[in-house]
Design a protein that fits this description.
By secondary structure, this protein is mainly α. It has 24 helices and no strands. Helix 17 crosses helix 20, helix 18 crosses helix 19 and helix 18 packs antiparallel against helix 20.
């Protein structure tokens, strides 16, 4: 192209870079992107317009970028903090206002559930808040000081403990957004139900106003911060579930960037709430007018910061510029080609996308039927267990060993795993998400045998020996073999041998996927133990389906373990198979061979 055409084509981004360099506060991401593009233009100008002024102009422009980087302060300036809370954070709130609304509604509805449940069942507060807390509070009420629990003399320790605990709750609500916002909703519901039960407990004692004016001194900011952290988790989950036209990984990165800004905005809120709870709430003898003033000022602060300020930014040019920033970037759709080398992160994002596509059929064919059958068999076995109350507390019988589970639980676990492998393998090899009779009849016996190999060591042998045996067999060997069985149509001895040798030789490459699966297993267990299990256990207790209450806990815990394992199996399967293909691409150049095979079949830049 001519020099004038080159200038006309690129002048807008050059002008944008000039304007960005002139600002005191610069968008680092946009600056980096423009710098890369202008550097490319400079290289082009050096080649085709070496003696023209456009080359000098671009050279000077890129030099200004380097100069601005060298002048940048290494510390955190107060003006940057002010700018964050005055403009950056309100823009994120405005952009994701629907997430904030959903978080608020979920929390309010959960508070209502807690209130209604407490009014219908006087013991509900004990289930949610714990016997120790209820007994201590009742003792304080009887002694004439219902709010004595806030009068701990260790003010500093109390402040640090409260602040850390609140930040931990917020971080949990944020991180669990990676489960497609489901985990965040559970945390919001857990805290909302707890608040509703808490307030109704004092209402039932005739102390609603006393408790309200005391608790909401710090609770106004604290509860608001939890709702805001929930919104951050929903933003994160939406970025994963709804990538729009973006690559799912890049969509998650964009959402995570916004969500982290929102989460960062809650830190000072939790610090303020901790100070109020540790140093102000303890003074229960304050005048009601003073308490009302603190609550009102706290509410006004939250509304001004998180509602009014974002609302005032509506329609401004800076909002339109900020919202269109991502649209200027061009993304390529996610590749689902198996014959492609991927990093661990790329494999994880692909696995999440595959799970999302398969989750409906997986729940229909595997998860719901398996949990239903397991629950029925577990109910029968626990009702027939020959142990008294003391022995139950000492031994806590597990249905995952042959002594208590017997053949029925073993067959249930094996059939569930075999069906899961059948569905996952068919999806990966044939891109189908159903199980017809012909496919099942042909391959299911092999999958059943593979499932026996995985489950039998844990079920029949001691734990340490089972772990060692599983490490020798390697789970990747079973999953890779299941795929090759369908791909090749048979399980010839040579295929079994070569697959096992491949699994052993590349053993350390499969450790990160297994580690990711274990991490998400832990996250799911934390999620279920963050309040869900106690609600389910209380529901079971109300219906008295077991003679001893400890059997309620054992029953629910066993079901949770099966649910966690079945939920993690697809993640582990897709991660291990993606690693398998990546390693084969690395060692055998399968991706290059695939491209060469398709060379000439259509329009391609490579040609």
């Amino acid at each position: 192209m001519t020099e004038s055409q080159f200038i006309e084509k690129n002048k807008e981004k050059w002008r944008e870079l000039e304007n960005l360099l002139a600002r005191e506060e610069k968008d680092a991401d946009r600056l980096h992107q423009l710098f890369v593009e202008v550097s490319s233009d400079l290289s082009y100008a050096r080649t085709f317009y070496a003696n023209r002024s456009v080359r000098l102009y671009l050279n000077n422009l890129t030099q200004q970028v380097f100069d601005s980087m060298s002048r940048r302060s290494t510390g955190i300036r107060f003006s940057s903090v002010v700018e964050f809370f005055r403009q950056i954070l309100p823009l994120e709130v405005l952009r994701h206002r629907n997430a904030f609304l959903v978080s608020f509604l979920v929390f309010v509805i959960s508070v209502g559930i807690g209130i209604i449940s407490s009014s219908n069942n006087p013991d509900f507060a004990r289930v949610i808040l714990g016997d120790e807390y209820i007994n201590l509070t009742e003792d304080n009420i009887n002694s004439g000081d219902p709010m004595a629990i806030y009068k701990d003399e260790r003010k500093v320790d109390m402040f640090l403990g409260i602040t850390f605990n609140n930040i931990q709750v917020a971080f949990l609500a944020f991180v669990l957004g990676l489960f497609g916002t489901f985990g965040t909703v559970v945390v919001l519901m857990s805290n909302g139900i707890m608040l509703g039960a808490f307030q109704y407990f004092f209402y039932s004692k005739g102390l609603f106003l006393t408790s309200f004016l005391t608790i909401w001194i710090h609770g106004t900011i604290e509860i608001s911060a939890i709702i805001i952290a929930g919104a951050a988790g929903i933003i994160l989950g939406n970025g994963l579930l709804f990538p729009n036209t973006y690559d799912r990984l890049l969509s998650l990165q964009i959402a995570a960037k916004s969500a982290l800004k929102v989460l960062l905005g809650t830190v000072p809120l939790f610090v303020i709430a901790g100070i109020l709870e540790s140093y102000v709430t303890r003074h229960t003898d304050l005048e009601d007018a003073v308490k009302c003033s603190i609550i009102a000022l706290s509410l006004l602060f939250i509304l001004a910061m998180w509602v009014l300020l974002p609302y005032r930014l509506r329609g401004r040019d800076i909002v339109r510029s900020d919202l269109s920033e991502n649209s200027r970037m061009h993304y390529t759709p996610m590749s689902i080609n198996k014959f492609e080398y991927r990093t661990v992160g790329e494999s994880f994002i692909l696995a999440v996308a595959q799970i999302r596509q398969l989750m409906g059929p997986y729940m229909k064919y595997i998860l719901i039927p398996a949990l239903t059958v397991f629950a029925l068999i577990s109910w029968y076995l626990l009702n027939t267990v020959d142990l008294n109350y003391e022995e139950l507390h000492e031994q806590r019988p597990s249905l995952f060993i042959f002594k208590y589970g017997g053949a029925s639980i073993f067959l249930t676990l094996v059939l569930s795993l075999a069906l899961a492998i059948s569905l996952l393998t068919r999806y990966l090899s044939e891109n189908r998400s159903d199980l017809d009779l012909a496919y099942t009849k042909r391959f299911f016996p092999w999958f059943f045998l593979m499932s026996v190999v995985i489950i039998a060591p844990v079920y029949f042998l001691s734990s340490w020996f089972a772990i060692i045996l599983l490490c020798i067999l390697t789970p990747q060997f079973i999953f890779i073999l299941s795929y090759l069985l369908v791909e090749k149509g048979n399980a010839a001895p040579e295929i079994i041998r070569s697959t096992y040798l491949f699994s052993v030789r590349n053993y350390f490459h499969f450790i990160p996927p297994i580690g990711i699966a274990l991490f998400f297993s832990w996250m799911l267990i934390v999620l279920f133990q963050s309040g869900i299990s106690s609600y389910i256990i209380s529901f079971v207790r109300w219906h008295e389906i077991f003679e001893f209450q400890i059997l309620d806990e054992i029953f629910i815990q066993q079901i949770i373990v099966v649910a966690v394992v079945l939920l993690v199996i697809p993640l582990l399967y897709f991660l291990l198979l993606s690693t398998y293909f990546s390693q084969r691409c690395w060692t055998e150049a399968l991706d290059l061979k695939e491209k060469l095979k398709k060379f000439g079949e259509g329009a391609n830049v490579m040609e």
